[in-house]
Design a protein that fits this description.
The structure holds two protein chains of two kinds.
Chain A lengths: L1 H38 L6 H22 L9 H30 L3 H23 L12 E3 L1 H8 L7 E2 H23 L1 H11 L1 H6 L4 H26 L4 H17 L5 H19 L3 H7 L18 H15 L11
Antiparallel strand pairs in A: 1-2
Chain B lengths: L4 H20 L2 H27 L7 H16 L4 H31 L4 H30 L17 H22 L4 H21 L1 H4 L15 H6 L1 H10 L1 H5 L4 H43 L2 H11 L1 H6 L4 H27 L9 H15 L4 H29 L8 H8 L4 H16 L13
Helix pairs in contact in B: 1-2, 1-17, 2-12, 2-15, 2-16, 2-17, 3-6, 3-7, 3-15, 4-5, 6-15, 10-12, 16-17, 16-19, 17-19
Classes of the chains: A mainly alpha, B mainly alpha.
Chain lengths: ~325, ~450
Amino acid sequence: MDFINAILVLLNYTIIPALTYGSQLALGAIFVTLIYGILRFANFATGDMMSFGTMFAVLLTYYFQSLGINLGIFPTALITIPFATFMMILYMLSIDKFVFEYYRIKKSPPVQLAMVSVGVMFVTQAIIRIIIGPADRTFLDGEKFILKASEFKEMTGLNEGLTIKSTQAITIVITMIVVSIMFWFLNKTKTGTSMRAYSDNEDLALLSGIDPKKVVLITWIIAGILATIGGILYGLDKSYRPFVYFNNMLPIFAAAIVGGIGNPFGAFLGGYVIAFAEIFLTYAYKKFFTYILPEALEPNSMMQLLSTDYKFAVSFSILVIVLLFRPSGIFKGKTL
Amino acid sequence: MRQYTNVIAAYLIMFTLIILVGIFQSWSIALTILNYCLISAVMTIGANIQWGYAGLINFGIMGYTALGGLAVVLVSVAPVGEAWRAGGLNMIICLGVIVGIVFSIRFTLKKIAKSKSRNYLIAAIIIVGILLLRLISAPAIESIEAVEPAKTGFLGGLGLPVLFSWIVGAFLAGGLAFVVGKVALGLRADYLAIATLLIAEIVVSIIKHEDWLARGVKNVIGLKRPAPYEINLQQSPWFIELVEKFHSGKLALINSVSEKQEVLKQLVIDASSVYVKLCFTGLFLTVVIILLIVTQKALYSPWGRMMRAIRDNEEAAGAMGKNVVKQHLLIFILGSAIVGIAGAMMVTNDGLFTPGSYRPMRYTFVIWVMVIVGGTGNNFGAILGGFVVWFLWVEAAPIALFFINLFTAHLPETNEIRVHLINSAPYFRFLVIGTALLVIMRFRPQGILPEKIIKN
């Protein structure tokens, strides 16, 4: 019995939150990796682009709520996904047209493009703050919990309850759907194959008649979908605050590089690697050990490896270690 | 002379702008802007050495700035005796343990051939070392932080003059740069950018959360100053006389004695803040001029030529027998050390150390915009960039407010769009800076004052 309780503690406080956070990071990391693999630059505007899409979801949610439209037990934000994604793609394509295209045609070095993306980051942040302001907002409505701790305890008669928030379930399910569609697209369709070819060897791809404009267009569309959905899921689960989104860029970069940049599947797994490492290393295991150890051995400290203040530092240290020992990432990305 | 016309013109415009702020807003604001411009200029000199001379991309400027600020606390604050007695010894032992770990790792790396077992050995050393550190430091940290947590709760510093900390800041930042450089300099440009960005974030999070070191997010206030305090100035007779003399014409117009006293008092208060800021301006200007002379000399020396050669073609320079790795590391350390000086200068200027305020936006990306807008590879350009961008950063909000009022003048006061726009005026600074960067990158990629190569 104690063993089941111990497992429940882990599930409740580490595994489920880590899966959720990992899914959110994974979507962002695939976005970074696609831009890096096909457009060939590190996009420092990642966090703010996700924030931009989410901003529309927040505004539309408020609008729909004022009209009285909702999805019952599901959050209203789910209806806004197509609209927000559309706006996001429109924004990305116009940025590409006015900013990035020039450097791509000129074949500027990646560093220059990264610098330009810093400029895009500034402008995007300004637009977001001017439209919606820097405040913290929650836009979650509908049913908050799928399973409450008290209900679970009644059902099973165990000491520990299992809580599953609806946002956690929604995040994991939607991520799985989006990611599977994306991998199917990249691996099975003709356009997806041409994108991978373009990413592997641009010159060869051009020689075999792949239209670069179409590849770039599709890349931005997929990137827009990933960025918006990732941003909305994060905002639903925690809350929407532009500054936090900017900061999220850092673990997302870590996930993309740990997974091997340019490799979408690596980025997907990298998101979970980062999330699990962050949560497992900063969780206080006292409760867990009280359940599994005999009473004599019960710990009196918190059994915490690192204080939660160092959450971000964990993911960055992992990144540094990976860069040192396996610069192409755990799952072999582009060679550096 | 003619080749310098654009440099002189650009600087003249910049100083005219600052003087205009003095006339239209106030001299105190103008001097604050000028001081921050000078601090930014030191940062851009540091970043420009790395990016302009050597082509190294360092997105970790925030970390070095924070270390420079930490140096001010560690050097100038008086030591907290009680905290030292409570846990000083343990912390010194910890320092010894860290040194021990580093040297034993170096020893293993040198003496044992590359193999899997060597990696395991190093991992074991690190894990054992960290456990040892936690065992020794945990009780000490607790007792140090318990010493008057509202006022101190940290070890304090050395109680030395604050100017000394500028040098210490340079050494701390340089030391970090040595470690980072050893680790990350082999990476390709954009990976180096990401790695340095994240390492800086780690440094700041350590400063933020290790309260025993510098009180963390509880901030250290009331730091020493290399300039007189306003309160003391307002009471010293020589200063009051000076102000009286300076404003004698204005004061002569007032007849009643009591009114004259009132006006003089107000003038003295204003003048004292201007005087203090002028003292800082003098100090900062000295630093900027010294750095400018040294970096200019270095740029046109054989060493500077070698750096440019390495930047433009690493392989060729390597083939000519130049040690590319060593030079990269050297310039990474030098540039970061200069940024460390700037960090110390900034904390000295503010008189307080607030680790929570170190954010990559303000301390890394804005500095980079300065370097690129001003002119990479040209010290005069980098300094000008520091001035221009800082000026825009500060004055963007008032200017935006002016234009918002202009364009929405026909709307009623309570119009929702107008109120919303006026409230969001501060965020126009991001728009201005971002647009400036994009425009410069597109139409004048070498910056306002491009790199000049003197050929004999």
